[in-house]
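Posting for a labmate who doesn't have an account.
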Amino acid sequence: MNRTSTWQYWVLLFAILVLAASILFQIFDLDTLFNRLYGSLIGVVLTAIVTVFLLQGQTQSQEKREKSIKIFEKKQAIYHDFLVYLNSILQDGKLTIPERGSVERNEYIDLIFQISYLKLHAKEENTQGIISQIEKILDLLSTESTYNKDMDRSFYLRLTEELLQLMHIMRKDLYGDNTTENSIHVNEIAQNLTKYALKK
């Protein structure tokens, strides 16, 4: 016999001895003894059922919480990777689309995949907002070559505004921040940043 079954036999033997002693020393009447045992048995069964339901609810809640944490962490990683990728496009100053068969990396295809990762994890309304902001940034980037020295301030001001608006949409999706971004506030931040960056 293993240790667990030996322990169970000792508990059963002890319960029988207590029951026999109760009858022998007339602690319980024989008439009420079976009623009390039946009542105790019902109490034990009901307690076990309630405990099982509570543990199932707690387990489901814990699993849901862990899943939410994993999704949040994955979203953070995807957003971070996307921002790093967008930064590389902005630093480069162009979206490279080489000829088919070229060994050069196709940044447009990479961008499509980055947006697909975002779409996979973001809410639909936020995905549309993110795509809209990316279009504005790429449109601004395509017109950068037409800017002259005097227009640099305007370019960087618009770029800062569009990037800050993009950050707002991502923050809203990640953290559930439902505050509406005040465009004057974004414009003010952009003005301040470009004022210091583009001093002559």
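Reply:
Got it, the structure tokens are right above this. The chain has six helices and no strands.
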